[in-house]
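for the writeup, i need someone to sanity check this before i put it in the appendix. the sequnce is what the collaborator sent (i think, or maybe the updated version? ugh). structure was predicted straight from it, no edits. if anything looks off just tell me and ill rerun, i have time this weekend
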Amino acid sequence: MTGEGRFDVDGFLRELDQVFAEHRGATHAEPLVREALAATRDLGDRAAELTVANEAMGLMRSLGRHDEALGMADAAIALVAALGLDGSEAHATTLINVATARRAAGRLDDARVGYERALEVAAVAFGPRDRRVAALRNNLALLLSDRGEHRAARAELLAALAVLEAASVDPGADLDIASSRTNLALECVRLGLDAEAVTHAEASMEIFRRGAHERDPHYAAALAGHAEVSLLMGRPADAVDAYARALAVVEECYGRGSDAYAVTEANLAEARARQGPRAASSPRASSPAAPIGAPEPHAAPDPVTGLELARSYWEQVGLPMLEERHPALLARAAVGLVGHGSDRYGFDDAWSRDHDWGPGFCVWLTAEDHARHGAALQADYDALPREHRGHVWGPETPRAAGRRVGVFEVGGFFESLTGHREAPGADAPHAWMLLDEATLAAATNGAVFRDPLGAFSRVRDGFRRMPEDVRIALVSRRIGMMAQAGQYNVPRMLARGDGEAAWVAVGEFVSAASSAVLLLNRPSSAGYLPYYKWRFAALRALAARPASRLPGVHPLLSDAVRLASAACLGGAGFGEGGAGAGPARAALEAAIAEACALVAGELRTQGLSRSGDPFLEAHRAELDARIGDPWLRGL
């Protein structure tokens, strides 16, 4: 008997995510999905039924029950038509899932038609730069590979990778980027592009390692891809190791009876056969394991970054403690390293280790969990060994601004950094304008190793999503300062002979331009401009990213800094006569002009200005006209 009502779709999806996060998918996912399908039909909630049908389709496909997956595909297509959703996002999503189910079932011609139709709908419904379009191109590439069209597959994967790297908040820990690179590695090997294959395979594995995704089912796929690359390149020992680790992940996520387990197990057997008898006597397999958390005496310190050390310390020391002492928090606590310090940005080096650096991590709890478990967990954290991999926690400086590692309540952690327990809303532009970019950088940097509830990431992502009006207002201010300090005052002060004033103006110009570059790349993707001593490190890192905007500004700002002393104050090799003398002045002014021209071009590319004027102040009126909030527009 059916009735009218609404099914709790969000609650169902949260519960399903938690089932997989806790690695109960093999036993609990299917009953949960079937119960949800029955409930949507009883309630007559056809929109919810479509969502659940799409989830069921993917689950049946992953379990190797292709007839059931195809049945769900037919039902989902019928629901799209009945709900009048042709051309919508739901239609595009369903087409992608249906085509993927058909590809897995071996119906390649039908799948190709489905993917091509999905691309048509998705280009309109999602937009060409949406992450879902990248996922679609990835799936189409897999199909093309199945058909032996490897050059076309590589082209699709490169297009997908460009979309993902432009859209990603944290490319260094992005699972979708890792999957794309794994698939690219395979296609490159098949095309004889071995060097490119190794680059993609190693980059994929690094993402999983840095992002602490080693228990994610996607990690199994990456490992299997890495193993296949290793086999194709004649490295069976590496393939055995990767397949063995993949098999353990598949068993935990889907169970021994799944299609994925059978395929991975067969691949492992083949890799072992190619390796020969050495596999059984591998030193890796026979070496006794060291006690968890025990440092190696007199071992030389690893040349490791702070984030890598934190992740290793968490996995080898912190996680076992949590499993033993606080098992209830395994499905609730977020863990990572975020906040103040060069290590959080990945900018640390040997010179960073004299203070506030060493093995440690942050645990973030909800207010309720912190009240109940925080003190006991902090005591257990304090009892952990303070040495790991030859490194000890360095002395804290007076400017350390409180604890940088340990146990925190989510809201209190962000309040200690920003003064806000969570990000201001779009209706509070004044609050956003009072937040320094370096403060926002500290609140959104680093890495989150795990966050099963999503409570920490939700708040962190809120600070990453700067309202568009605020972003445009800040861009307007920054280009105004670039024009005033760099284009106007540097040559004016040099002509006047006031070298000190010109030197200060160069500094203001570089600071404003650095901020403009990050803002025009969007904080949600590129982050915020950090504390002054790490600004050039941030610009270098951004310029090195594929598809980054304005990569050419960074070297010009570097030139401006290098030339400023000689141009403004005089210097050997640049002629005599003090401020403004010699060729350094011309080179400095040229670097400033070129950087401003690049920024003006980017404003036009993004549709923020139509002006062709090289003077950046002339572009501000068009930017300000695009600001909806009257208070911001009047600043």
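Residues 278-302, 571-580 have pLDDT under 50 and may be disordered. Residues 487 and 593 are 7 Å apart (CA to CA).
thx in advance!!
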